Amino acid sequence: MTPAVVMPSEDRRSAPEPLVVCSSTDINGSVATDTIVRKRCYLHVRGNLVGGLTIEPGANVVVDGSVHGKIVNKGGRLIVHHKGLTATVRSDGPSDREAGAILKINLSAIAFNWEILSKHTVAECAAVVRCNAYGCGIEPVVEALAKSGCRTFFVTDLAEAKRARTTAPDSIIYVLHGCCPGAGPAFAELNARPVINSSIELAAWDAFVRSIRWTGGCALNVDTGEDTLGLSVEEAVSLASRLNVPDHGITLLMSGFANAEKPDDPESERQIAWFHELRRLYRGVPASLAGSAGILLNPKCHFDLVRAGSALFGINPIPGSANPMLPAVELRARIVQVRDVMPWENGAGNGGWFAKRRRLAFVSVGRADGFPQSLHPKHKLHAMVGGYRCPAGRPSLDLLPIDVTDLPDARAARIGELVTLIGPTISIDEIAEATKSTGREVLSGLGGRFHRIYYAT
Fold first, then answer.
1. Is 361 helix (H, G, I), strand (E, B) or coil?
2. How are beta strands 382-385 and 388-391 bridged, if at all?
3. How crowded is the C-beta side of 349, counted as CA atoms within 13 Å?
4. How many of the other CB atoms lie within 10 Å of CB of 159?
5. Exposure string (b/e) for 45-66, b if CB count within 10 Å is 16 or more?
6. In a 10 Å sphere around its CB, with 0-12 CB exposed, 13-18 middle and 19+ buried, how is residue 89 labelled?
7. Residue 340 near residue 357 (C-beta atoms within 8 A)
């Protein structure tokens, strides 16, 4: 889509100039002024239209939130979704005055990323929110996705299933770590479905289901090459005969890729072939194989349900390619000290000695917060200080040194000021590359000491 074209208003007395759309335009946020959509143009607003709206003949307008002002439709088309995500602000954790860092999570961006992935397939698009929604918080993330149309969620354990159920009462919830002995009643109470990973687990689950005649169902997870949890292919083949029994209770057949990020990968093609054969044996049972990368790269693996994971939070599902996801997370930390370090002093966490005097700003984030250490000789960590990109050193337990020697304006690095560690110009993927990690590991590792702000635009 091309950017919106803003033309000046003829009335300049006091009202802000209206937004005049003269081309096909997407706006990821709310619009605070009156809006005019010219003839045969298209506008999609992923937020609210706070002002009035004028639609000229042949124009098409889609608003994901609501229109607060007067609507004048001169022969166009208007769709208002009222998704309920707009103008949402909530916080969690210690207050911003007490915390050393602030983590902002954009629920609209997460919902938009889900929409991007769901539009790449005709299959149902589920959301994987394991590990506390990759550290971002189960409840607000699940609520945002459920309001956006997501119907199925995958969580790690029963504790997460309980949290997800509070905000998605009508959704299907699968528990990836299955059913531990004695946990059956909790599944029935939550109406959650275990992902069965072994024959022993399946036998125990069957015994529980027969004892109370529960019909909630379960998923069978088959290890077709990922080398993690799951039934072997041989076990899955031998269990296929149970489909001849009425009320067999299997509501999903699933597996995962060993390496889905490379198109035309021979191992992935082998897994797809295996899974096709299993699906033939489990005829009538919905099947799921693709994660975020598979959704974008290989329609052959979509089957009946796809599982969007860490890409929902802005992490690039296809490393090395342009990231189609919107950034959804911002981390800013507070400066607690600024000092000059002389050549004979240790490099304050930089693992060496400075050749000349440097000025360092220490921010209140460290390993105790899950902030990783740079391990790549060519890729260093950076921070944005006053709009400038500054190199960062190795974090200690609760401090991260940032070299602010070359800042054009020294006032940007004062005690109490906030610097950006993750944001639009410093992505989670960049940090993962510098720390020889993955984006989901970086995001999931961020601790609970931050002041968290959840918002929707």
1. strand
2. antiparallel
3. 23
4. 13
5. bbbbbbbbbbbbeebbbebbbb
6. exposed
7. yes
Place of tokens 């560690």: 421
Angle, CA of 380, 385 and 389, to the nearest 5°? 40
Tell me the HSE value of 185 on the side-chain side, using a 13 A CA sphere.
Answer: 1
Q: Tens of pLDDT along the chain (457 residues)?
A: 433 443 333 333 345 789 999 988 988 777 878 899 999 999 988 777 878 899 999 999 988 777 777 888 898 888 876 555 554 577 888 888 889 999 999 998 999 999 999 999 999 999 999 999 999 999 999 999 999 999 999 999 999 999 999 999 999 999 999 998 899 999 999 999 999 999 999 999 999 998 988 888 999 999 988 778 899 999 999 999 988 888 889 999 999 988 777 767 888 889 999 999 999 999 999 999 999 999 999 999 999 999 999 999 999 999 888 899 999 999 999 999 999 887 656 554 444 445 577 899 999 999 999 999 887 667 789 999 988 999 998 899 999 999 999 999 888 999 999 999 999 889 999 999 999 999 999 999 998 889 999 988 6
Q: What are phi and psi of 230, to 5 degrees?
A: 140, 155
CA 449, chain centre distance (Å): 20
The pair phi, psi for residue 334, each rounded to 5°, is -90, 140
Q: Which helix or strand (DSSP H or E) is residue 238 part of?
A: helix 233-239
The residue type at 434:
A
Q: Which two tokens stand for residue 437?
A: 């990690």
Coil, helix or strand at residue 135: coil
Domain chopping of the chain, boundaries: 19-80, 120-313, 329-455
Quick count: other Cβ atoms within 10 Å of Cβ 422? 25
Residue closest to 188 by CA, chosen among 206, 165, 167, 212: 212
pTM to 2 decimal places? 0.79
Select 120-313's CATH number: 3.20.20.10, 2.40.50.140, 3.40.1700.10, 3.90.580.10.
3.20.20.10
Among residues 174, 171, 138, 177, the alpha carbon closest in space to that of 157 is found at: 177
- CATH code for the structural domain at 329-455: 2.40.37.10
Sign of the dihedral defined by the CA atoms of residues 271, 272, 273, 275, in that order:
positive
Give the three-state DSSP class for 234. helix
